[in-house]
């Protein structure tokens, strides 16, 4: 789930420019090379006042905290995917400061892990020509994201940084097009929406929760490789996109849909889970019950073999306490069922009723 925010509409795209092809979101800019010269900017007093008016009052005034102190409070358990947030603002692809603005906004939001950054700089110093974290972050952003962890700071640190980027770059006029970077009210509106998301804690990383998992070492560089669980892109692409083709389309029972969902979950967990935890692709069939039984028989009969063998590396779920997690049709809690006068399911009495499968799964 994500906090709602007003995304750009077709009307606002038209307001920005008559040619949609000339507009590009910050999110799309971050996927490509955003290298380029950096200009020293000093907006005029009039431009700064205009930007402050369009951004609205500074919501953190009067409640400022020491920016050097990290805030460990959990402001929200529902977070905004930062990449969707970057997709809220569209900029002119030809504006001379688009890339510099994108770099500044990215750097204000994502703080690199110092240890990972030092490792990248150390490796880069051995290359010909030499490379640095800063250069690679701009030229090869995807490469950096896989080899360096980043943190999104708490609201009292993040809000003033992002607001300063908006107020500095928003009114800057491009010398060629004679248009400011934020040339329409809709862009300023999206900037205000982003600041509100930040103020309410919907963008900052939750404290005490690791969002990165190391899944291997880059053989070419010796640098650790990370997988990040921040955001929803991996869920949308890894699960939602693929599950549609695995489920029956029409003319089937609830039991069939439930079985298909469980089959997809099993295969997905084996394929994706093995790669995420080991960096290796899963090799084998998907009948885990057969593997469990074979392993148990080998353990039972090991004294009967002259050269006993074992299934090393196989985790037998039968040897652990079974999870109470439910996938698919969920049981109705007892208190809800009792409150509504619903009796529990009894196989001897209800197995022949019309919707016995659903009733059994829901315990109603």
This entry's quaternary arrangement is single chain
Integer count of domains: 2
H/E order of the elements?
HEHHHEHEHHHEHHEEHHHHHH
Tally the helices: what do you get? 16
Unreliable parts: 4-21
The whole-number mean of residue pLDDT values reads 85
Structural class: mainly alpha
Q: Topology, please?
A:
Elements (H helix, E strand, L loop, with lengths): L9 H7 L6 E3 H5 L14 H11 L26 H5 L3 E3 L5 H12 L1 E2 L1 H11 L8 H7 L1 H5 L4 E2 L3 H15 L15 H15 L12 E6 L6 E5 L4 H14 L7 H25 L9 H13 L33 H6 L7 H4 L5 H7 L2
Antiparallel strand pairs: 1-2, 3-4, 5-6
Helix pairs in contact: 3-9, 5-9, 9-10
Essential attributes:
364 residues, mainly alpha, two-stranded antiparallel ribbon, 16 helices, 6 strands, globular
Can you put this structure into words, describing what you see?
The chain is mostly helical and 364 residues long. It folds into 2 domains: 10-228, no CATH class; 329-364, no CATH class. Helices cover 45% and strands 6% of the residues. It is built from 16 helices and 6 strands. It has helices at 10-16, 26-30, 45-55, 82-86, 98-109, 114-124, 133-139, 141-145, 155-169, 185-199, 233-246, 254-278, 288-300, 334-339, 347-350, 356-362, and strands at 23-25, 90-92, 111-112, 150-151, 212-217, 224-228. The strands form 3 sheets. It has a two-stranded antiparallel ribbon with strand order 1-2. A hairpin with a 6-residue loop joins strand 5 and strand 6 (224-228). The longest helix has 25 residues, at 254-278. The chain is globular. The two termini are 29 Å apart.
